[in-house]
Each structure stands twice: as C-alpha cells, then as structure tokens.
Write a structure and sequence with these properties.
alpha+beta; 20% helix; FidL-like; FidL
C-alpha cells in the first residue's frame, strides 16, 4: 500500500511539472511593430526645444531584440534641425507582464540628421539615464493600441502595424 501511494505521488508530481513546463513553453510574446507621432517640449537653459517626431518601435524574437527609430524635426531658439536616429536593442528580458529591459547596442544618426548629439540627448534622457540600458513598459490599452513608457516618463501611445 505504501508503494502505491509513493507511485501515485511521483506520478502526480511528474504530471504537474510537465503541465507547468508545457504551459510556460507556450507563453510566447509576439513581435511588435507600432508607430506614433509625438510632440514634446523640453525647457533648457537657452530656451525651449520642441521635438516633433514619428517614433517607430519594433521588437522581435519574442521581444529580445528590436529598435526604436526617431524621425522628425527639432525646433530650438538657435535653429530648426532634422532628426533621424535609430537605437538598436538586444538582450531583452521580460521583467513582468508589460515591462521589458534591453541593452542598447548602439545609437546611429542617419546621414541627413542635422541635430546635435547634445540636443538629441535632452530628449533621450526622458527614456533612460544612460546609453547602456532602457526599460520599456508596453501596455495594451485597446486592440492594437499601446502605451509605451519608461520609468522616467510616459513616452507615447502607438498604433500597431
């Protein structure tokens, strides 16, 4: 009788472990591509910087890799400049249901980008405190509509494409 209970217990444990692994294995995160228009005003010492940009977020491979692309214009007291930067992300880790942390591989300015790195950094510091990692909270608020934020501020609401 003791052997029967031991066998039943081992069988139950195997079933529970198998079920847990099966369900966890199916918990995949689909790729995400979404775009948004954003207008942000940042007050700096010599006057306001107005960023009018299209932000394109793309996350791949169960959201372990991706990119953020900014394309638009920056108005400052000194000049109006064109902004086109791509931030390449890797080593994505899912922190909780809606939050992901990424390593920033590199930030690349397009050949036509005329915005200085210092001006770009004023906006970029709204996303991350350094150029090494970024944490994004991506919350699905409606079918195909997401809010994207960082620990520092709400960034934008984007539409999946």
């Amino acid at each position: 009788m003791k052997t029967l209970w031991l066998s039943a217990g081992i069988l139950a444990a195997i079933v529970l472990i198998s079920l847990t692994l099966f369900l966890k294995g199916n918990e995949t995160v689909s790729p995400l591509k979404c775009k948004a228009f954003s207008r942000a005003t940042i007050d700096v010492q010599n006057g306001p910087l107005v960023f009018s940009t299209v932000e394109n977020l793309q996350l791949y491979n169960e959201r372990k890799e991706g990119m953020i692309h900014y394309n638009g214009y920056v108005k400052s007291p000194d000049a109006n400049t064109y902004l086109e930067r791509t931030i390449y992300l890797s080593s994505g880790v899912k922190i909780d249901k809606d939050t992901f942390s990424y390593k920033i591989n590199r930030i690349v300015a397009a050949p036509l980008d005329t915005t200085s790195d210092d001006t770009f950094d004023q906006m970029w510091l709204e996303n991350t405190s350094d150029n090494k990692t970024i944490t994004l909270n991506i919350k699905n608020i409606r079918d195909g509509i997401f809010t994207v934020s960082s620990p520092y501020s709400l960034q934008y609401t984007c539409v999946k494409y």
